Amino acid sequence: MPKPVPTQKLIDGLLKGDRLALARAISRVEDDAEEAARLVQAVFAHTGKAHLIGITGAPGTGKSTLVSALVESFRARGLSVGVLAVDPTSPFSGGALLGDRVRMTGHSGDAGVFIRSMATRSGAGGLARASADAMLLLDAAGFERILVETVGAGQAEVEIASVADTVVVVEAPGLGDEVQAIKAGLLEIADIFAVNKADRKGAARTVAALEMMLETGSAAAQTILHHGQQMEAGAAASEAEAAGGWAVPVLQTVAVSGGGVGELRDALEGHRAWLGGSGALAAREKKRLDHMLQTLVQAELLARMERALSPDLRRDLVERMQRREIDPYSAVSRIMEGN
Amino acid sequence: MPKPVPTQKLIDGLLKGDRLALARAISRVEDDAEEAARLVQAVFAHTGKAHLIGITGAPGTGKSTLVSALVESFRARGLSVGVLAVDPTSPFSGGALLGDRVRMTGHSGDAGVFIRSMATRSGAGGLARASADAMLLLDAAGFERILVETVGAGQAEVEIASVADTVVVVEAPGLGDEVQAIKAGLLEIADIFAVNKADRKGAARTVAALEMMLETGSAAAQTILHHGQQMEAGAAASEAEAAGGWAVPVLQTVAVSGGGVGELRDALEGHRAWLGGSGALAAREKKRLDHMLQTLVQAELLARMERALSPDLRRDLVERMQRREIDPYSAVSRIMEGN
């Protein structure tokens, strides 16, 4: 086997924007928490420049196609883009899927685009840590826009709000009676809604329902969808804007043809400008770093527990508890002694 | 305010079976993890005698009424019974609900019965710890049968398998097309099925579906329910019995009239005898104590994290991270230094 590339060489390479060094560094971050610590420690001072964009939504909304169209749109403006596709539901898929994805999206020959799939290698906690680390590496490598797409459903989708500056929630008409975002608790985290597949029947209803929900802040607007009735909306958005807040826009896109994607890109740039001007950017970064700190402390405590509670000690203590020679709380004290 | 009763007095009282001392000790176990440790340390040597029975099932199956009928049935045999009703979904309800419950069940004048509601006071983790501790206190106080009823749905219902010797899963006909236990993942943890409200339409189908599922170990038997077809079942149960294992019985009860409740009590006594004879009792206790040990270690680590990560230190570190003066991994090392 060839010798592994020294960590310092990877660090030097990725800070110069070397794609191979970056790819290898991300692999190490996935494989090994200690190596992740070394890499992040070395590059952290070079982070904080990229616009971190989270893209989420239910399966079937066409998220991946929209991400690909967005990449093209950013490239047309000369901006470099890193993409992380995070899938907490599927086991680690290696490089094959990634290769397919790159070919499929047609960005394979472009040095200003870096696309990477991240999947479960060591549990959901490990994936969250590795994804956050990979974002820092892309940022340090100089990518100006970083798109993080979560595949699958549930907690991971809501978690995206903890790692991004701007969250896009993708909807699509015809996925059933309900707006998917409500079910998933995504209404609260959206900075921008994109109703994709907007050329399909029911798109206007989905848009109206979302606008109504943003206005009322409740799920009462579900009635729109159920009764096919269209109501005036958008008033609340204007009010929020007038008050200096961010009015969450509901945009329509047709990712396969690129329709509306320029407007989505402009909305993203607009949100970034608003974040910077309002002080919200620093506030979100602070929240993000705080979240990262907590996550890492928890991971460290878990690792310590695994070290402290060796299988032998555990078996011995349980047997003594069963003989009533020691009580559970004293057993815990015994475990904690060396820690 | 009156002085609190000294812990030692509570311990002496509950070991003699004093109900007031027991009630106060359970309250302390709910309120205060350190006090819980002192109480459990003192009484643990006196535990391990009671039969710990978990009773779970979907809302609407009549669990509470069945528990009350079971209490009566055990009392008719001269056995003392402690009941814990654990509700992870509702906030702490104090003594009022408890009082109602005792009156409602008609056991209020009986010294051989102790009924207690446990509800969320300090998060789901705290409730699990407090409930496990309360079971130990009831055991040490001399109650011969301890019924733990989980109210609500989800993780807590499956968790009951970690704290009981015997698990009863309660079903009822007419709660929809599907047998609720499959959805909730309860099939695997049931030692006994009780199809309650067995005088209602559809009870025979529910029984047949459960027996079929036990036989095939899969959800394929859902077809019975959907097609109204009744198939031969019970063959697998006899086979398991012949092989020396436990054949999970599917019993029918009508808790409101007491119908079938004697048979359920006999099945519980039968399972206890089987556990003792087969060595499964010791194996389950070992698993339970191991689970308790892990839970307590995790709680201790969490408490340490909260101590280690003071609001001031956390704010300071996040601000320094934001200024890129320190990286996240080095911040974690800083937090862990004193621990």
Topology of this structure?
2 copies of one chain form a homodimer.
Chain A: H1 7-15, H2 19-31, H3 33-43, E1 51-57, H4 63-76, E2 81-91, H5 94-105, E3 113-120, H6 123-140, E4 145-150, H7 155-159, E5 166-171, H8 180-183, E6 192-195, H9 203-216, H10 222-227, H11 235-242, E7 250-252, H12 261-278, H13 280-308, H14 311-322, H15 328-336
Parallel strand pairs in A: 1-4, 1-5, 2-3, 2-4, 5-6, 6-7
Helix pairs in contact in A: 1-2, 1-3, 2-3, 2-6, 3-6, 4-12, 6-13
What would your notes on this structure say?
The first copy, chain A, has 339 residues and is α/β, with parallel strands linked by helices. Chain A folds into three domains: 1-44, no CATH class; 47-280, Rossmann fold, CATH 3.40.50.300; 309-337. The first copy, chain A, contains 15 helices and seven strands. In chain A, helix 5 (94-105) links the parallel strand 2 (81-91) and strand 3 (113-120). The longest helix of chain A is centred in the last third of the chain and has 29 residues, at 280-308. The first copy, chain A, is globular. Mean pLDDT of chain A is 81; it is low at 91-100 and 218-243. The interface between A and B is large, with 42 and 42 residues.
Order of helices and strands of chain A: HHHEHEHEHEHEHEHHHEHHHH
Shape of chain A: globular
Strand numbers in spatial order across the main sheet of chain A: 3-2-4-1-5-6-7
Radius of gyration of chain A: 23 Å
Do you know the CATH architecture of the largest domain in chain A?
3-Layer(aba) Sandwich
In DSSP terms, counting alpha (H) and pi (I) runs of 4 or more, how many helices of chain A? Answer: 15
Helix proportion of chain A: 40-55%
CATH class type of the largest domain in chain A:
Alpha Beta
CATH topology of the largest domain in chain A: Rossmann fold
The assigned structural class of chain A equals alpha/beta
Low-confidence residue ranges of chain A: 91-100, 218-243
Overall residue-averaged pLDDT value of chain A: 81
How is the biggest beta sheet of chain A arranged? 7 strands, parallel
